[in-house]
Amino acid sequence: MDFLSTPEAWISLLTLTVLEIVLGIDNIVFISILSGKLPANQQKKARQLGLGLAMITRVLLLLSLSWIMTLTSPLFNIGSWIGITDGEWFEKLAISGRDLILIIGGLFLIYKSTHEIHNKLEGEEDEEGNAKKHSFWATIVQILILDIVFSLDSVITAVGMAEHIEIMIAAVVIAVIIMMFSAGAISTFVNDHPTVKMLALSFLLLIGVSLLAEGLDQHIPKGYVYFAMAFSV
Predict the structure, then answer these.
(1) Which of 36, 56, 152 is nearest to 100 (CA)?
(2) Tell me: the pLDDT tens digits for 96-130?
(3) Has residue 182 got a pLDDT over 80?
(4) Can you give the pLDDT at residue 54?
(5) For residues 184 and 32, what is the distance between their CA atoms, to the nearest angstrom?
(6) What are phi and psi of 9, to 5 degrees?
(7) In this structure, what DSSP letter does residue 83 have?
(8) 10 Å Cβ neighbour count for 200?
(9) CA angle at residue 33 from 117 to 135, to 5 degrees?
């Protein structure tokens, strides 16, 4: 516990914990919407398991810091494919492993949000006209995919803010525990209010566009997205 022996370490832990919670809001909203499509007796289990997987993913990524750092190195350059071979734009079109994950995650989130909005408005029925039932493990797999994307963003932020790996892991664990206690209330609120649920899906669509843009080196401050969501609610 020597790493917590200074006031600076405690401030770093508190700041990083708050930031992890803020960065986890979109994750909670996504988990709430997906778990809400399951039978009532499976929803809490899906939320807890989803957040538990998010915590495990974050901790494993933190323990693989040397690998995480290599994800920021360019893998290829789109510019060479479209005839741009030098200058500032060529540098901007370099795609790293992190960029690829953000692009794929952003596209998945855009698809999933659009699909859920369509189902919310048009309905989702089987051949006999009954509402489709969703598989528990299929839902968990979808949650895990987005956990990886959101975790990568969260871990890279943590690496940039704290010096000690212990502080990063402690902040992640504390943040996820807090989110576990609040996820039920957030999920109930989102699923009990159709308008809020539609706004939440629109919010996830914006997050997907933001992730896609960031993967293409066009950073959109998340504060703008969060403000738009808060203003709409």
Answers:
(1) 152
(2) 777 887 888 788 888 888 887 887 777 655 555 45
(3) yes
(4) 82
(5) 8
(6) -65, -40
(7) T
(8) 26
(9) 100
